[in-house]
Protein backbone atom coordinates (compact mmCIF):
# COMPACT_ATOMS: atom_id res chain seq x y z
CA UNK A 1 0.00 0.00 0.00
CA UNK A 2 1.44 3.39 -0.94
CA UNK A 3 2.49 5.65 1.86
CA UNK A 4 1.13 8.80 0.18
CA UNK A 5 -1.99 9.11 -1.97
CA UNK A 6 -4.48 11.55 -3.39
CA UNK A 7 -7.96 10.13 -3.75
CA UNK A 8 -11.14 11.16 -5.51
CA UNK A 9 -14.63 9.91 -4.77
CA UNK A 10 -16.46 7.89 -7.41
CA UNK A 11 -20.17 7.87 -8.16
CA UNK A 12 -20.69 5.29 -5.39
CA UNK A 13 -18.98 7.52 -2.78
CA UNK A 14 -15.95 5.23 -2.73
CA UNK A 15 -12.45 6.72 -2.75
CA UNK A 16 -10.08 5.74 -5.54
CA UNK A 17 -6.46 6.84 -5.94
CA UNK A 18 -5.50 9.30 -8.67
CA UNK A 19 -1.91 9.68 -7.43
CA UNK A 20 0.22 7.41 -5.22
CA UNK A 21 3.83 7.26 -4.10
CA UNK A 22 6.05 5.69 -1.47
CA UNK A 23 8.66 8.44 -1.81
CA UNK A 24 8.67 11.41 0.59
CA UNK A 25 10.46 13.63 -1.93
CA UNK A 26 7.80 12.90 -4.57
CA UNK A 27 5.09 13.68 -2.04
CA UNK A 28 6.70 17.07 -1.28
CA UNK A 29 6.96 17.78 -5.03
CA UNK A 30 3.30 16.91 -5.53
CA UNK A 31 2.31 19.07 -2.55
CA UNK A 32 4.32 22.00 -3.92
CA UNK A 33 2.70 21.62 -7.35
CA UNK A 34 -0.80 21.51 -5.85
CA UNK A 35 -0.08 24.55 -3.68
CA UNK A 36 1.11 26.54 -6.70
CA UNK A 37 -2.01 25.51 -8.61
CA UNK A 38 -4.22 26.67 -5.75
CA UNK A 39 -2.36 29.97 -5.42
CA UNK A 40 -2.70 30.62 -9.16
CA UNK A 41 -6.43 29.81 -9.15
CA UNK A 42 -8.65 32.75 -8.35
CA UNK A 43 -11.26 30.49 -6.77
CA UNK A 44 -10.46 26.86 -6.02
CA UNK A 45 -13.46 24.72 -6.92
CA UNK A 46 -15.50 24.24 -3.71
CA UNK A 47 -12.41 23.93 -1.54
CA UNK A 48 -11.64 20.48 -2.98
CA UNK A 49 -8.07 21.42 -3.80
CA UNK A 50 -7.50 22.90 -0.35
CA UNK A 51 -8.78 19.66 1.21
CA UNK A 52 -6.47 17.57 -1.00
CA UNK A 53 -3.53 19.76 0.03
CA UNK A 54 -4.41 19.48 3.74
CA UNK A 55 -4.74 15.70 3.47
CA UNK A 56 -1.42 15.26 1.65
CA UNK A 57 0.36 17.60 4.09
CA UNK A 58 -1.04 15.50 6.96
CA UNK A 59 0.32 12.33 5.35
CA UNK A 60 3.74 13.97 4.93
CA UNK A 61 3.77 15.29 8.50
CA UNK A 62 2.89 11.83 9.81
CA UNK A 63 5.65 10.19 7.75
CA UNK A 64 8.23 12.73 8.90
CA UNK A 65 7.22 12.29 12.55
CA UNK A 66 7.51 8.52 12.19
CA UNK A 67 10.92 8.93 10.56
CA UNK A 68 12.09 11.16 13.43
CA UNK A 69 10.95 8.61 16.01
CA UNK A 70 12.74 5.85 14.11
CA UNK A 71 15.95 7.93 14.05
CA UNK A 72 15.73 8.57 17.81
CA UNK A 73 15.16 4.87 18.53
CA UNK A 74 18.11 3.93 16.32
CA UNK A 75 20.31 6.47 18.15
CA UNK A 76 19.29 5.17 21.55
CA UNK A 77 19.29 1.50 20.62
CA UNK A 78 21.73 0.96 17.72
CA UNK A 79 21.14 -2.21 15.78
CA UNK A 80 17.62 -2.73 17.01
Q: What report would you give on this structure?
A:
By secondary structure, this protein is of the alpha+beta class. The protein has helices spanning 24-40, 48-76, and strands at residues 4-9, 15-21. The protein has a two-stranded antiparallel ribbon. The chain is elongated and about 50 Å long.
- DSSP strand content: 15-25%
Would you report the number of β strands? Answer: 2
Cα Rg: 16 Å
Low-pLDDT parts are: none
Shape: elongated
Strand order, sheet with most strands: 1-2
Distance between the termini: 25 Å
Task: Summarize the main sheet.
Answer: 2 strands, antiparallel
Number of alpha- plus pi-helical segments: 2
Order of helices and strands: EEHH
Mean pLDDT across every amino acid position: 89
Helix content: 55-70%
What is the SS-derived class?
alpha+beta
Amino acid sequence: MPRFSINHIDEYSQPYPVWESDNLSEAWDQLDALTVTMEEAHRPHSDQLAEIIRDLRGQIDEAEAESNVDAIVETLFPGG
